[in-house]
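U., I forgot to send this yesterday:
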Amino acid sequence: MSCSRGAAAPDRNTALRLFAASAGYCQNPSCYNSLFVEAGTARVHIAEMAHILAARDHGPRADASLSEVERGEFDNLILLCANCHTKIDKAPEQFPNQLIFQWKRDHQLHLDQMFGATALSTRAEVRSLIEPLLLENRVVFEEFGPDLSYRENPESEMASAWRRKMRERIIPNNRRILVRLDANRRHLTSDEARTLELFRQHMHDLEARHLTDLTVEAQRHFPEGMNKIMTNGGGDA
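Result:
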């Protein structure tokens, strides 16, 4: 998922944010292909970071008024499969910038609907919506997590099961938790709002480590305050 465009290339944080916004799917709404596929025993990505307005003055959908830094910002990037990236850049007249910006907005709306982003009336309702997901993630971590004895043998069956459950259960659950809490931010205390942002960073780091080839220098830990968020006691970071 690399991009060599000088100052127009996204930095690491932008790349993480872009991947998180995609949830692992091509952001072309007529495609929605998974960006991570199995190839024998390996899991490879076909994700490419595409500039909506070109990284260079003479590229597809170029806007010479933009600085290089602006061209590499999150708002001007979209995550696509290799096929869709090639199509939009080789036939830019068929894929104007307004259309691709709309793809990105539609993709977010689709994810919000898919993961149950609904504004609720009370904190208790929000808690009841996220508690089963938090519980499942905790049980998976306790039963398969890397703190168990197999951590010295990354090729063991338990290590393989942990990686699979991380991709298939924990990461999708994290996404559901995040969009449901974002849709109900008005119920958060100030401490809970900070906890939520710590959780967001933790989620981005997990996705980068388990689903991409991006390097995570210091992975953020799960904030303990998430276990109490939207309860009467609240969630301190």
